[in-house]
Design a protein that fits this description.
The protein has about 300 residues and is of the alpha/beta class. It is about 40% helix and about 20% strand. Strands 1, 4, 5, 6, 7, 10, 11 and 12 form an eight-stranded parallel β-sheet that branches. Strands 2-3 form a two-stranded parallel sheet. It starts with a helix and ends in an 8-residue tail after the last helix.
Amino acid sequence: MIKKGLLLALAMSIMLGTWMIVFPQSVISHKGCMAWVTAKNKYFALTHVNPSQQLLKASASAAAGPEQVPVLMYHYIVRAGLNYEPNNNSMINLEAFEAGIDYLHEQGYYTATLEELERYVAGELTLPERTVVLTFDDGYENNIIYAYPILKKYGFKASLFVVGTNIQEETGQFDPAQKSFLSRQQMEETRDVFEYHSHSYNLHYKKMLHCGNEYGAGMNEKLLVDDIAKMKEAGIDTPYFAYPYGDFRQQMVYYLRESGYRMAFTVRQGFVRPGDNPMQLNRLTVTTNTSMAELLSPAEVEP
């Protein structure tokens, strides 16, 4: 069966490659290019299987406790008076952020760590019915200045996915009106609340990958392999990863697996359930206008 799949993928690649050479500018050529990429990805998936991937699939089973867990995604926190991009969903007003965290506390939510979430997905751990996972992307200093004391007040835990090249060697003077990134000192001082994981070392930018389309640079596996090594050298050596811009494909998943990553997060909207693919987990974006009560209602997000 696998041999037939390989032969079919190879045949498709040859035919589509020939078409694109003859008609390089046509709309059909672009569609053909995308179909060719899909065939290549399927071929890669058939010929590159991580042993750990098979084990995880075999062990995944429904756990007792909540049927699904929301993984909330935050980025940049700013005071309302300094939010000059109110339509930017990656920026949340401090006042709205605090109100949302207050709501979680009032409703008795438990904040799970990524290790606990991993075991929940694998069917190995029962979590409280009201469980939430808090994640922050990019490593902005305002996460430390604003989010940390609020989370600490309630004994909440959170995960922060940092870009390695953004980590500052020294802590500077915080200016709430300017974009700035956290320092190593701040990371060490806040580990009672935050755990720190990879958002790549230096691949948080868009790059032309194929068919005239731009994607997160991490989808280029040649860049990714070197980037993973640099991130580990920088001291961020954990099994958890957040895809820059949420972009990923089979090749990227394979090389992350080979490098010891066991769980990764997209920006695809939805809840996390036992038995989900741990390398393609959903999250829920929290914005200034988000109603936390509505966001956490299972009826609000389709499986």
